[in-house]
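thoughts on my protein:
***
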Amino acid sequence: MKIFVDTASLAEIEQAVSWGILDGVTTNPTLMSKAGASDFKTHLKKICDLVQGPVSGEVISLEPDGMLAQARELAAISPHMVIKLPMTVAGLQTCKKLHAENIPVNMTLIFNPAQALLAAKAGAAYVSPFIGRLDDISHFGMDIVRDIVAILERYGFGASCLAASLRHPLHVVEAALAGAHVATLPWSVLEKLVHHPLTDLGIDRFLADWKKIRPEGW
């Protein structure tokens, strides 16, 4: 499963890249605002240069013509750009046109397998079910991931299931077990994946024992 980080913070992205585990980045207008991106195109370019992998940038227009124009502007920023479109009729229409132009699309705000099926048929490179938001309304979000993965693989669609709105480490593990091709997670969740109290305890014990036997100069 590929790991994307859901942020626009250059510091967080740079650190994640240094770990050697980052495959891509997803952003949205809210994240760009939090990161203080005064020029969002320049900011996206910096992210692409850091990641050297898929970077999702979101259109704002809700009409097909506006979506298409904005998507082409974003795609021109870097070969790594992926266009985030909402799961609407206009989004599907735009996705089909972008697919014909070899511009990858991340169809976002997906909440059931039927929407994912339509997005895949329109040529989306990624279909993004929002797991946490489904859990918020007492729906088992991870069941949607399993169904989407089954549909994509049964019919040989080129789309990847990108599990989004992941709130905690268990969500990430469940997404991996459900067969999600990609998981995008906030920086706070990515940090939590690294740590375990028994790991920290084990390191402390090893260091304490090493002090008893270490040779001079070490």
Summary: The mean pLDDT is 95.
